[in-house]
Amino acid sequence: MATRLFALERYDGVAGECADEPVGALTTGATRLRAAVRIVADEVVLALVEGPDAETVAAVAAAVGWRVDRLGPAEWITAPEGPAPATQGDRP
Fold first, then answer.
1. Is 1 or 34 the better-scoring residue by pLDDT?
2. Counting Cβ atoms within 10 Å, is residue 4 exposed (0-12), middle (13-18) or buried (19+)?
3. Cβ(51)–Cβ(6) below 8 Å
4. Nearest one of 12, 47, 11, 10 to 31, comparing CA atoms
5. How far apart are CA 68 and CA 65, in angstroms?
6. What pLDDT shows up at residue 82?
7. Going by C-beta distance under 8 Å and a sequence separation of 6 or more, which residues neighbour residue 81?
8. Is the whole model's pTM more than 0.85, yes or no?
9. From CA 56, how far away is CA 18, in angstroms rounded?
10. Which of 45, 61, 86, 92 has its CA 20 to 30 A from that of 36?
11. What is the structure's pLDDT at 86?
12. Distance between CA atoms of 10 and 80, rounded to whole angstroms?
């Protein structure tokens, strides 16, 4: 199965919500959380998630209660250490 990389944005300024809680649950049998960062000044959390398609990534996020304010395809410039991430050659 080919995987693609997606960037999920969650705006953290919503009262009563904390984007940190279920972010780790974005790794499932169908998706893999590769990295997550908070941009403090903008109150934004970015999660980089690999999955087969945007619909699957969005469904997993919804299932674990991680609100997605924006989702789009992404490409690695420099990948974190660990198993090889999805690359452009993995795209369908």
1. 34
2. buried
3. yes
4. 47
5. 9
6. 64
7. none
8. no
9. 23
10. 92
11. 54
12. 21
How far is Cα 24 from Cα 27, in angstroms, rounded to an integer? 6
Distance CA 34, CA 54 (A): 15
Look-up: residue for tokens 């080919």? 2
Q: Which residues are registered as beta bridge partners of 29?
A: none
9/22 Cα distance (integer angstroms): 14
Q: Which long-range contacts (CB under 8 A, 24 or more apart) does 83-89 make?
A: 85/5, 85/34, 85/50, 86/2, 86/3, 86/4, 86/5, 86/50
Query: Structure tokens of 61?
Result: 């996020």
3-state secondary structure the chain: CCCEEEEEEEECCCCCCCCCCCHHHHCCCCCEEEEEEEEHHHCEEEEEEEECCHHHHHHHHHHCCCCCCEEEECCCCCCCCCCCCCCHHHCC
Please give the pLDDT value at position 91: 43
* Count of C-beta atoms within a 10 Å radius of residue 16: 4
